[in-house]
């Protein structure tokens, strides 16, 4: 399976000791790119997210398995082996695997693996070329280092919830978290980038290194322009709902069957909208003639436009506005997302084979390589299903040696 991979990281060996989302997301990205990612899990239960359902994966007979959709979302392309890290025998197996590994990803609490001799200082003596990526809530240093970190806490403390959601003085106002675990996912993205950078550095130095990543740090980093607005301007940005703080009209508007996004960035686009919508008087109104005036008269303009946009459906507005160059789009539910012709044309849904004999549909990796395309050899693995092949491929063990290892108490099922 792994000899036929087409991605740019073919031949790279990754030991994934992480659970939940941030670490597994990084590992899945590397797997998408062709790396051999071995997921090390607790005997008996495995990754916590295996139980985070419903919904759960069904086998070819329609029988529900114990693997949740949540787990499936972050572990495709990997192989699974169970090892008891608390047992000396299990620790010995990890060290043997580390001898062959290029990368190790872990998200245990600070110091959690040191007591097993599986921290970076210990394992770097086993394999000086190892790139060791640690992901925690608050990092390896600082007054919060020992705190447990979760995505919601990172979003709250890292500022994104203070700028997400409707204003407090409007219906439904108040802070909102992002609809997916954005701090986790972005940390996984940063982790994959950092790992690739460290591997490039290793090509020059011959040595691996330790990567220290925190959910809170990541969340602060991708405040992006909103952080710069504060750091340069001195005022903390506030929630503005779906509206733009500098451009009007730029936001979400009601339609006959839902909502659509309208992003009018200049006077010409406003006039085009008003022509198509049959309200040229709005574009001619001095209150709305320039963006500066529209900002001053935001409430009045938004009310007028909502009365107009309610007269057609989401798709009807898209059909008449896009041809004349007015940026817009329907607020799609997820079922509509995957039925969208552009999403279909870009191949953003893929069917991936599972060892149970079923095909599992996934959102595709969005990256299109011209020479080393992403491939999808398998869906997320069942718990411990790849122990034999991993031990054979990584450690050159035959069947008898694998049997002895299983009997040693290392936790391999």
Task: Summarize this structure as a short list of keywords or feature phrases.
alpha/beta, Rossmann fold, 17 helices, 15% strand, elongated
Sum this structure up briefly:
This protein is of the alpha/beta class and 413 residues long. Helix content is 37%, strand content 15%. The strands form four sheets. The protein has a six-stranded parallel β-sheet, with helices on both faces. The chain has a three-stranded antiparallel β-sheet with strand order 9-10-11, with helices on one face.
Describe this structure in words.
The chain is an alpha/beta fold and 413 residues long. It folds into two domains: 2-222 and 344-406, Rossmann fold; 250-254 and 259-330, formyl-coa transferase, domain 3, CATH 3.30.1540.10. The chain is built from 17 helices and 13 strands. The strands form four sheets. It has a six-stranded parallel sheet, with helices on both faces. Strands 9-10-11 form a three-stranded antiparallel sheet, covered by helices on one side. Strands 3-4 form a two-stranded antiparallel ribbon. A hairpin with a 5-residue loop joins strand 12 and strand 13. The longest helix has 24 residues, at 182-205.
Bin the strand percentage: 5-15%
Radius of gyration: 26 Å
Unreliable spans: none
Q: What structural class results from the helix and strand content?
A: alpha/beta
Count of discrete structural domains: 2
User: What's the CATH H-level homologous superfamily of the largest domain?
Assistant: Crotonobetainyl-coa:carnitine coa-transferase, domain 1
Which fold name fills CATH's third level, the topology of the largest domain? Rossmann fold
DSSP helical segment count: 17
């Amino acid at each position: 399976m792994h000899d036929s991979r087409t991605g740019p990281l073919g031949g790279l060996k990754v030991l994934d000791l992480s659970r939940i989302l941030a670490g597994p997301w990084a590992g899945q990205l590397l797997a998408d790119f062709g790396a051999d990612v071995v997921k090390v899990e607790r005997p008996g239960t495995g990754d916590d997210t295996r139980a985070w359902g419903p919904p759960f994966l069904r086998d070819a007979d329609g029988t529900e398995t114990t693997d949740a959709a949540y787990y499936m979302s972050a572990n495709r392309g990997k192989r699974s082996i169970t090892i008891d890290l608390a047992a000396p025998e299990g620790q010995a197996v990890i060290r043997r695997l580390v001898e062959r590994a290029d990368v190790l990803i872990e998200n245990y609490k600070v110091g959690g693996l040191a007591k097993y001799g599986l921290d970076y200082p210990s394992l770097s003596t086993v394999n000086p070329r190892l790139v060791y990526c640690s992901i925690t809530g608050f990092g390896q240093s600082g007054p919060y280092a020992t705190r447990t970190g979760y995505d919601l806490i990172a979003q709250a403390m890292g500022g994104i919830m203070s700028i997400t959601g409707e204003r407090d003085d409007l219906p439904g106002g108040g802070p909102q978290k992002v609809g997916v675990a954005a701090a986790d996912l972005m940390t996984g993205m940063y982790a994959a980038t950092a790992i690739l950078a460290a591997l490039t550095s290793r090509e020059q130095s011959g040595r691996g290194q330790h990567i220290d990543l925190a959910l809170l740090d990541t969340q602060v980093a991708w405040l992006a322009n909103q952080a710069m607005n504060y750091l340069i301007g001195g005022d903390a940005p506030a929630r503005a709902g779906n509206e733009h703080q500098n451009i009007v009209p730029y936001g979400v508007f009601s339609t006959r069957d839902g909502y659509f996004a309208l992003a009018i960035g200049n006077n010409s686009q406003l006039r085009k909208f008003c022509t198509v919508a049959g309200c040229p008087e709005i574009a001619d109104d001095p209150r709305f003639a320039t963006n500066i005036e529209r900002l001053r008269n935001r409430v009045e303009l938004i009310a007028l436009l909502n009365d107009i946009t309610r007269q057609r459906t989401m798709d009807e507005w898209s059909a008449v506005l896009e041809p004349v160059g007015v940026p817009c789009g329907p607020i799609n539910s997820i079922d509509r997302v995957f039925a969208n012709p552009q999403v279909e044309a870009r191949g953003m849904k893929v069917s991936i084979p599972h060892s149970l004999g079923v095909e599992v549909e996934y959102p595709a990796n969005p990256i299109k390589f011209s020479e080393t395309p992403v491939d999808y050899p398998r869906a997320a693995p069942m718990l411990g299903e790849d122990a034999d092949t991993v031990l054979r491929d990584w450690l050159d063990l035959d069947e008898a040696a694998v049997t002895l290892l299983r009997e040693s108490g290392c936790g391999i099922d």
